[in-house]
Amino acid sequence: MATQSMTVGQLLQKQREEKKLSLESVAQKTRIKVTFLQAIEEDAFQLIPSETYVRGFIRCYAKQIHLNPDEILNHYRNQAGPPGGLEANSPAASKRHLNRIKNHLFDFLTTMAGGTPAYSLGKPLSRAKD
Questions:
Q1: 8-80 belongs to which CATH class?
Q2: How many angstroms separate the first and last alpha carbons of the chain?
Q3: Fewer Cβ atoms within 10 Å of its own Cβ: the N or the C terminal residue of the chain?
Q4: What is the distance, to the nearest Å, from the Cα of residue 108 to the centroid of all Cα atoms in its chain?
Q5: Closest Cα partner for 60 from 40, 75, 42?
Q6: CA distance 118 to 32
Q7: DSSP assignment of 25-82
Q8: Residue 83 half-sphere exposure toward CB, CA atoms < 13 A
Q9: Which uninterrupted H or E stretch holds 20?
């Protein structure tokens, strides 16, 4: 495999370019959106919905361009550091987590008090009486 000084995104991009493949062709074969493949190549993993998707996309991408997916995933784990990703300990991540907890608590208390939660439940549970 390439040097450890390269990031996961750089390794994948380099291999893809050596095989003369476009992002669009890889996207078509893997059924991964081009925007997600770009995010992986730019090491912008926070743009992908969850850590599970990141690992799955990296595995699929690596297989498609004939790299060992286990080696690439190990390299990703080393690059990402502790569980939770690259930005898990950042102040912005902590603030987002706290806001999520506040929103869930507010919705729970509102529901318990007989109100409607702030999020949409889809179809109304009962029909309006005329």
A1: mainly alpha
A2: 70
A3: C
A4: 27
A5: 40
A6: 32
A7: HHHHHHT--HHHHHHHHTT-GGGSS-HHHHHHHHHHHHHHTT--HHHHHHHHHHHH-S
A8: 1
A9: none
